[in-house]
Design a protein that fits this description.
- This protein is mainly beta.
- Helix content is about 0%, strand content about 40%.
- Among the domains are: about 125-265, Methylamine Dehydrogenase, Chain H (7 Propeller), CATH 2.130.10; about 270-370.
- The protein has no helices and 35 strands.
- It has a four-stranded antiparallel β-sheet with strand order 15-16-19-20, with no helix packed on it.
- A hairpin with a 2-residue loop joins strand 23 and strand 24.
- The protein is flat.
Length: about 375
């Protein structure tokens, strides 16, 4: 039994967090994906999970039969308490989830690995930075990996629906951080300098059937971390100061119909890294490590008018006191995860709901980490 346990799980009606990855290093939240009816947040040292108590529980780091969930390999579970079909347990672990290395597919409704899924044999050996559907039931994955299982497969791969990799090998020389698919063209951003022997500095378009880069070549001078495609315009964020033949600080829009010198006149010019982008109509929400963007003082998060080329920060100003790592939207509510302790006029410990219809003091009463 646990004495005075802190149950750091909240289930909030009307929203659902399908994927939430909270990095324990620095407490930074990295990814939010919203959908459906419920939002479930799991962090900290005590978790609960539904389990089949007719099956045998195995040691930490192993799959629990029937539940297909595990705690951090090598970490300890020191106390447990059962209530109905829910087991509460605490210890020194920092992760609870599917038993895999750096990437796996799970059923969004059950949390289980789909029947026949083979990705346990082809797990990446390092972090995934980007995962997008390939339009045929599979996935494109990008990241810092160099192998899938025992197979050499570096930085970028295409995965079948059953988790096995395609025989598809664009030859990059460094990690992929972001991807957008448009028809048979895969736009990729990251740290790389070449693809299949052709110079493509940190951003490129790949013809999916051949695996070769197209002639599209914006030539960024530093990391491209985030991408959003809207029509013929690709919005990109990262750490660059030059892209598409123009000076663009951390954030730019690029025409996909011009191969070079393709930066548009849109120029918000952030003074720090842009890590997450979200387009809603003509408003681009940007998050990152900046304190100035769009010609205005904005810390960590801002709304930008895509119809204005400069001085394009809107009046919406949550005024975070720290970096915002990731954002997602449901209706008029924007969800922001990061390393701040104050945002939207309220104390919030790295996770908040912000009303986009209000320009100041827009943090709602929803406070899942206010424990």
């Amino acid at each position: 039994m646990c004495s005075n346990p802190r149950i750091l799980m909240q289930q909030i009606r009307f929203k659902r967090l399908i994927s939430l990855n909270v990095e324990t290093d620095g407490g930074k939240m990295k990814k939010i994906i919203l959908d459906g009816i419920f939002l479930v947040v799991l962090i900290g040292l005590l978790f609960s999970c539904n389990m089949d108590f007719g099956t045998r529980t195995r040691a930490p780091g192993k799959v629990i039969s029937g539940a297909l969930w595990t705690v951090t390999r090598g970490a300890g579970v020191y106390c447990m308490a059962k209530s109905g079909n829910t087991l509460y347990f605490g210890g020194q672990f920092g992760y609870v989830g599917p038993s895999a290395t750096y990437g796996i597919s799970v059923d969004r409704n059950t949390g289980r690995i789909p029947a026949g899924y083979m990705n346990l044999d082809y797990s990446p050996n390092y972090h995934l930075f980007s995962v997008i559907p390939d339009g045929t039931g599979g996935w494109f994955i990008g990241g810092g990996f160099t192998r899938l299982g025992s197979t050499q497969h570096a930085w970028l791969a295409r995965i079948h629906a059953d988790g096995t990799p395609y025989d598809w090998y664009p030859d990059l020389d460094a990690p992929v951080w972001s991807m957008v698919l448009s028809g048979n063209t895969l736009y990729v951003g990251g740290e790389f300098y070449t693809i299949n022997g052709q110079t493509r500095n940190r951003i490129a378009a790949i013809d999916v059937p051949s695996g070769n880069p197209t002639d599209w070549n914006p030539n960024a001078n530093d990391l491209v971390e985030e991408m959003v495609l809207s029509g013929n315009i690709l919005y990109v964020g990262g750490m660059f100061t030059s892209i598409g033949g123009q000076t663009r600080n951390m954030l730019a829009s690029l025409s996909i119909t011009a191969n070079t010198n393709n930066a548009t006149a849109w120029n918000p010019s952030a003074n720090g890294r842009v890590k997450s982008l979200l387009l809603n109509g003509t408003t681009m929400y940007a998050a990152g490590e900046f304190t100035s963007i769009g010609g205005a003082s904005r810390t960590g998060i801002a709304a930008l008018d895509t119809a204005k080329n400069t001085a394009n920060a809107t009046l919406w100003n949550p005024a975070s006191n720290g970096a915002v790592e990731t954002i997602a939207m449901a209706g008029t509510m924007l969800y922001a995860g990061g390393s701040y302790t104050s945002i939207g006029g309220a104390t919030r410990n790295g996770f908040a709901e912000l009303d986009t219809t209000v320009n100041a003091n827009m943090a709602t009463a929803w406070d899942p980490l206010g424990i």
